[in-house]
Amino acid sequence: MDNSKVSRNGNSISVIGPLLDFRRFLSEVHKSIMNAGYTDIVFDFSKCTSAFQSSMLAICAQTMRYTNEKILFELKMPEVSTLSNLFKNANWAHLIDSKNYMPSVFRGHTRIPATQYRTANEQQRAVNKIANTILGAIPDLKREDFAAFEWAINEITDNVLVHSNSPIGGLVQISTFQRKRKQVEFVVADAGLSIPQTLRDGRPEILSDTDALDKAIREGVTRDKSVGQGNGLFGSYQVCSESRGKFEINSSHGKLFYDESRGLHIANEVIPYSGTLVSATIDFSVPHLLENALKFDGKKYKPNDYVENHYETGGEGEICINLLNEAESFGSRVAGTPIRIKIKNMIRIEDVNQIIIDLDGISLISSSFADEVFAKLFLEIGPMEFMKKIKITNSMATVKSLIDKAITQRMSTGM
Length: 415
What we know:
Layout: E1 5-9, E2 12-18, H1 22-35, E3 40-44, E4 48-50, H2 53-68, E5 72-76, H3 81-89, H4 92-96, E6 111-117, H5 120-135, H6 143-164, E7 170-177, E8 183-190, H7 195-202, H8 209-216, H9 232-242, E9 246-259, E10 263-283, E11 295-296, E12 299-300, H10 306-310, E13 318-322, H11 333-347, E14 354-358, H12 367-381, H13 383-389, E15 390-393, H14 397-413
Parallel strand pairs: 2-3, 2-4, 3-5, 13-14, 14-15
Antiparallel strand pairs: 1-2, 6-7, 7-8, 8-10, 9-10, 11-12
């Protein structure tokens, strides 16, 4: 039974139970401002029990658009402490009510808070941060699968800057889920021109919003070939469907949804969404599923990836990791976990012969960090593979001693 309720009392919009219908919520915001004439709006989430990043990113994007138009917003946080913490950590609280809530300082390696980008440089920094996080969050990641994911998120975020004319730029957020399946969900939202509106500029034969979304995931469909090839949404949809994930687009009155069990559905929504919201879930549980996901004009496409652009040295089969750039702290086991996963993922890259771990500038690490990164890796891949693949350079004597001791202790226990 749906126990979710969205209601408005004057300038206050409240959510009781789970937030399931972001369109209804935004409709109440629109009526408060445009019909009732309020210039200060209260979002009362005190009785809200759950909220998902796709719905919240849509709300954040529209709130920021109204903020640019001099509308003030106040956020009442959920009484459920875990949800209240999520609002802060995911950066939703700050994006809605920057006066009362600071930007998120969350530094975990399984989630990237909602991030705003307005320029090509900001977009590229956001994509690089996401790619770096995935390398350290998903174990046993295959390079072809990783490259397809990175391509998809780069294309979707870039579409915002190229096509939407959004006054706030775009918002992007990512979460990883590993308990049952190795899934990554990323959401991109804007508050600009909708897909139906932009496609109709170059394709007047498109008569409905649902038809526009159907065309949007077809190969080569774009409003203007001189601007782009029209493969971003098509390729991203292919990546999600090939990996047995999910894909959803909300734009104007149109809603497109795909998952493996229900297939592809396109529906007309009564309440429009002023912009575009894309939610994509990619499943890395089965390796090599994405090798052939990116095919254009019948030809397999192999994109450059983050590893090639940031770690390959130019030497044949050589990768260099400057450890100083990989963590803010070298004093805990938690800080070491994503680094070990990243190194192990790079070892699995077929054409990598050696990984150089440069410790230049690191004067001290904790024993737990040394154990988590180096000793566990030594045990997991074996002594021969470790000595063959891993080369540690520029280590101070104290750091080298801690690494050696951690490896010795780990090997003596065999755990």
